[in-house]
Amino acid sequence: MGSTRGWLLFAALLALSVTAVVNGQDDVDDQDDFMNIVEKAFLLVRHKIDTVELVQGKNTSVVVEIYNAGNSAATDIKLIGAEWPLLDFEDSGGAASGSWNKLSPGATVRVEYFLTPKTSGPYAPLAAKVTYKPESDAQTQVAYGATPTLYILSPTQKLMRTALNVGSYLSLGMVRTPEQWLWAGSTVGGAAALLGGYWAFTVATDANKRKKYRQALEEVTKMS
Questions:
Q1: Which among 108, 157, 154, 132 has a CA at the least distance from the CA of 41?
Q2: pTM for the predicted model, two decimal places
Q3: How far apart are alpha carbons 153 and 176 in whole angstroms?
Q4: Average pLDDT value for the chain
């Protein structure tokens, strides 16, 4: 149910973006045209990835969903998945493409495949392409769905990110970045040095007092 609401909100926002750029009689005509489109099959495409922060060498799932936001069935549907460069990603199984004879109004189809990043760093969006017929005798339409912008972490970066998250939790959110941890470490180190120096001074003072006491006791003993 929640997924359907999300698709409907997506379609509503798309409708607003289309109708917001026209004025006067053209506004009415274009809204009518858009409503005619929605009366037919109208496919929306989106990607769902485990996380936008992938980890180099770690398998991740990519799901492509196609939703019919129109009021008629789409036919002859073909999905051509995003082309991930094999230089940067390893194909770890699943199906990035697919085809379906029919998709009813309000229905969703999906494919799932798996990738393993080979490199680290930011990665720009890639697009999947869907072709379909909004009506049985209509011309073929095209829809696109882009992946989110990804950032691929190296194992070391992932370990550091995890450590920072744990540290942020333990410090109640007061220390979050490496710079803040460096400052905190310097502060704690400085405080520890001061405490250590004070302790050493106290020990030395007490030892000196005990030595003087023994010397005085020895002098009194000799006098008696």
A1: 132
A2: 0.59
A3: 18
A4: 76
